[in-house]
Amino acid sequence: MKLNVPEKVEQVSGVRQLPSAWKYLPALCALILTLLTLDYLFNTKLLGAVTKLETQFYYTVVAIMLPLVYLLWPAWGGAARNRIPWYDILLFLVALTVCGFFVYYAEDILDRGWSFGAPQFAVYWSVALWVVVLEACRRAGGWPIALIVGLFSIYPLVADKMPGPIQAFPSTLEEAAAYHAMSQESIMGVPLRAFASLVIGFLLFGVALQKTGGGKFFINLAFSLLGHVRGGPAKVSIFSSGLMGSMSGSVITNVLTTGVLSIPAMRRVGFSKSYAGGVEACASTGGVLMPPVMGATAFIMAMFLDVPYTQIALAAAIPSILYFLGLFIQIDSYAARFNLKGLPVAELPSFKQTLKEGWYFVFVFVLLIYMLIYLQREAVAPFYATALLLVINQVLPYQRWGWNEVLDFFNSAAKLFAELIAILAGVGLLVGALSMTGLSGTIANDLIWLAGGNTLVLLLMGAMTSFILGIGMTVTAAYIFLAVALAPALIQGAGMNPMAVHLFILYWGMLSFITPPVALGAFAAATVAGAKPMETGLQAMRLGSIIYFIPFLFVLNPALILQGSATEGLVVFTQAVFGVWIIASALQGYLLVIGNLCTNRALQWPIRGMLVVAGMTVAVPGGGPVPLSNMELSILGLVMGIPAVVLAWWINRNQASRKVQNQA
Asked: If you average pLDDT over residues 315-332, what whole number do you get?
């Protein structure tokens, strides 16, 4: 089987193809930003004019990338995508000038406290930056996030006119504009600082990985290992998308990189179009939740919690293992139930040849993990890994770059940088408004009051809010809003573990990628598979059902995210693995050793339903908000599960006996 993975997959949708006069500008901006970031992180002082002062460096990051949004994203969907209209060039220059003002005056802003008492001319520039950021956010992130951010950003102006629970002290337009533009709590707040300090290097690494053939290597490796087994191509999708997604940090890019080969292969062995698309969507979504990279949101989480990023990655390891385990078991059960074979070994790539041509991807991956976990150098680790990857890539003959590939690399990086800068600066306005009015402190108490002090009700409210915001906003934006508004209620009011709460919000925000009516990851996979989008979304929702309750497992008992004793963690993990196996098998109608659970049409639903309930009672940790202990839940699970297993075994045995008698 010839495995051809597209080398150039557009990472950001809807961008304009710049005419020749402008085509080098994004790459140049990405190169300048990379050099500035290296100078700032390594403290070389070669570019000290803009990197010696931290806030000046952050303003410079915005000044380099934010104006690009006006060139790369058209003002509206129907606009021409092969030319730049005069007004977008004008807006680009305006944005560059406005951002440049804050770079120039960064030292005065800090030394003279302009965020609380700015001169009048600085207020005018602050209003201009406010407007520029909102429009850039709309273009890069879409109308939903722009409306939410825009309404929240002007909230301080009318805070005293709001109804009781959301009433606060108002601010004047001048005060709000100065705070938004020049404080460390709004546009230049945690989201943007996390991007400048941590995210840039990992985005560069993800783009380099893709452009040097990382997607092709991972999928070839997966096919060589798993392509021949039962339901092989679907298992390949899990393996390759999990690896690629953990480093690219993008669900859509992951689908378009690995799905273009895994989906047709799944179709070939008998999977339906919608099922194949659902598998790829779930695998790609899970990849972004898997360490070591996990996407931009995890780095912002590290800054919110004020912990090293490695703690986030280690905490996320077991939940991501449970998710992929559940997905793997579901696919294996589905393939066993419908007798779906793997691909012929003769048609699969050679494992030896694959490693020979791509060993350095594994080597670079190991280096990244070593620097993250053992050396605790998360800010600079991706730069070392990217440099090593590019050097080896140029030495070996398989994927060498020419000047066109270098240009393509920096152009792709620039589009990612510009998109994220626009969205994070916009979300910063939202966080700034809550901070300015003091609402971020009172909202937690209001939520606790609404939940009646019940922790489980508060968790359900949090899950639904995370999911709904994940539909209208990017996952990063939804997470930031809830980290400010909801997380304190769960942490302070309900006494929950901070790491568990923040991961809980992230996981539920990610669910919008596989849950209709939006399901962007599933719809992207449906496009590749040629399937109906809504049908693919429903399949993805069913396949990814494990992820709907995994967040409840670790938020109820943080030992599952390594926030407890080793003994307790081992017990809870073992219970969770057993529970996930039972649930996944029941959902697909096939249990290992027992066989098909759907032999008897009348009894299959009671059997499968009892097994799902049994699996959940075993997996859910006891104690705390749960009124039963671990032992009591396990006994209840056995009481529900054993009769269902015995009944399924008896039905299958009778069915087999009848077949033998009929053949005789």
From this structure: 92
Give the mean model confidence (pLDDT) for residues 338-353: 91
The closest of 247, 277, 244, 271 to 259, measured between CA atoms, is 277
CA-CA distance, 79 to 97, in Å (whole number)? Answer: 25
Range of the domain at 655: 565-664
pLDDT tens readout for residues 239-275: 888 777 766 667 887 788 788 888 998 999 999 999 9
Q: Considering Cα of 523, then 524, then 527, then 528, what sign does the dihedral take?
A: negative
Q: How far apart are CA 544 and CA 176, in angstroms?
A: 43
Cα gap 310→183, rounded to integer Å: 29
pLDDT recorded at residue 288: 80
Q: Which whole number is the average pLDDT over 459-472?
A: 78
Q: Do residue 197 and residue 298 come from a single domain? A: yes
Radius of gyration (C-alpha) of the chain in whole angstroms:
26
Q: 3-state secondary structure string, 479-524?
A: HHHHHHHCHHHHHHHCCCCHHHHHHHHHHHHHHHHCCCCCCHHHHH
Question: Are residues 173 and 197 located together in one domain of the fold?
Answer: no
With contact defined as beta carbons under 8 Å apart, do 408 and 8 qualify?
Answer: yes
> Residue 309 has what DSSP assignment?
H
Please indicate, yes or no, if residue 489 is contained in any of the structural domains.
no
Helix %, strand %, coil % for the chain, to 5? 75, 0, 25
Residue matched to tokens 């898997």: 290
d(CA 234, CA 448): 43
Alpha-carbon span 595 to 610, nearest angstrom: 16
Q: What is the C-alpha separation between 576 and 633, in angstroms, rounded?
A: 12
Within-domain flag for 557: no
Neighbouring C-beta atoms of residue 495, cutoff 10 Å: 10
pTM of the model: 0.86
Total tally of structural domains belonging to the chain: 3
Domain annotation covers residue 419? no
- CA nearest neighbour of 255 among 284, 293, 288, 298: 284
pLDDT in tens, 133-159: 999 999 998 888 899 899 999 999 999
The H-assigned helical ranges of 154-295 are 173-182, 190-194, 200-211, 214-226, 232-248, 251-268, 273-288
Average pLDDT, the chain: 88
Give the SS3 label for residue 250: coil
Q: Which helix (H) or strand (E) holds 303?
A: helix 296-305
Q: What is the DSSP string of 216-239?
A: HHHHHHHHHHHTTSTTHHHHHHHH
- DSSP per position, 37-69: HHHHHHT--TTHHHHSSHHHHHHHHHHHHTTHH
